Amino acid sequence: MASLQLTSKAHTGVTVTPPRRSSSARAHTSRSPCRRLGRHASVCVGASSSSSTSSVDTSLNAFVASLKPSKTVALTDLARELQNDGKDIVSLTAGEPDFDTPPSVAHAGIQAIKSGVTHYAPNAGTAALRTAIVRKLQTENNLTYAPSEIVVSNGAKQSIWQAVLATCGAGDDVIIPAPYWTSYPEMARLAGANPVVVETTAADGYKLTPDTLRSVLTPSSRVLILCTPSNPTGAVYSEDELRALADVVLSHDRLLVLSDEIYEHVMYAPATHVSFGALSEEAYERTMTVNGFSKSFAMTGWRMGYIAAPQHFATACARIQSQTTSGASSIAQEAAVAALELGPRGGKVVEEMVAAFLERRDYCVRRLSEMPSNRISLDYGIPPGAFYLLPTISGSFGCKHLPTGEIIKDADDFCRGLLSQSDPGGLAVVPGDAFGSADTLRISYAASDELLEQAMDRLARYVSDLGEC
Q: CA 33, CA 49: separation in Å to the nearest integer?
């Protein structure tokens, strides 16, 4: 079966058309390859294109036309729409805490509205928030920045994109260890750079090794993206591992590091977080550190992220932002200040959320271990960070799903079958190819205990229904 193209009312894939269509071109029609799953959602097999009698030039910017839609966003939207249509679906697709924003943080946002803090904010962030971020980075990360070296944006995703755009261009390579967060390669392409995906292994805990990094470096290498704790694996780099990578980075003339630390507080003892920029003065000069409030403080809807970088890089990011979105929400920035006042590493509020994530991780790991290991297995160890698991499912490829008779050829087939399972119900997870890991699927355990129990029951049933391969 061909890989899935997921479309929905809220997020549709872009079908690339030839660069230009003459006004005299005649439109043609074809039978849609899509199967309806609800009022506003469908699953499409193979390539699809829309036809129109319009003579409008529908060509796109070449960089935009080459972009792949985010499969995590598409699947999350699809699961919601199926649920809205009355389908029995449990979704473990989104990387979003299921907790509410801490009350004192929400209250600060409400007070900002009541107090009239509703006007444009300074482009790079309010003085109060940038100062609070400087203090946080100094006390928690051993990183020293001036407020002018902080740029507050509408989420860490924008911060990452601006950092890539500011430092990369045509002919530059962006080194991305796989499995990776799904947006990294597309951001490189949007900047006109070349994403260089570097395979890691389960035996190495899905972490980049110095030898592997050294083997892919060329004069074109410009940025190495490191995410620790990792989405989608939950892997955490130790200080020794980061220092070994830093030795390789510093041996290159122009290589920078974009350190994505958005899951910094979601870690489980004895693992500890180390910021790449804190390793040495030389590492600091080459590092752009990205963080935010979505994951640690359950503030996904507030859209608050930031980058901390040496002045020339921060200034470039701020310049991009000034010509695109301008400053982030003044209301959300007031809430972000309150979040940083909760205490070191988010205080008791964040500590309680992390404790709940740990219990959920252990539950899901136990349930996976009870499933046939020749069909699904967590073969890189128990991840010490974030709230994801990336089990291998390649042992299921080639197997027949007995209730439907369908042959599971790849992760897309596995996940589609799991989603459409009628008894005991569907489960939405993300195929690993979205993260550069075709033999896996990603489970987000940022969900309630009740939903996780239902999800693991549905996954276990689906795996048990696979016949011989």
A: 10
Sheet with 41-45, side-by-side order of all strands: 4-8, 41-45, 34-36
Q: Can you tell me the mean pLDDT for 179-183? A: 96
User: What confidence category does residue 249 fall into, taking pLDDT thresholds of 50, 70 and 90?
Assistant: very high
* Helix 127-141 vs helix 330-340: crossing angle, to nearest 10: 30
Distances (CA, A) of 91 to 87, 268, 329, 452: 12, 24, 29, 9
Cα radius of gyration (the chain): 23
Q: How many CA atoms lie within 13 A of 104 on its CB side?
A: 13
Compute the distance between CA of residue 157 and CA of residue 307 in angstroms, rounded to an integer.
10
Can you tell me whether residue 118 is helix, strand or coil?
coil
**pTM, two decimal places:** 0.87
Provide the residue type at 198 as one letter.
V
Whole-number pLDDT of residue 21: 37
- Beta strand 173-178 with 194-199 is parallel
Give the Cα separation of 453 and 451 in Å (integer).
5
Which residues 6+ apart lie within 8 Å of 31 measured at CB?
Answer: none
pLDDT band at 469 (very low <50, low <70, confident <90, very high): confident
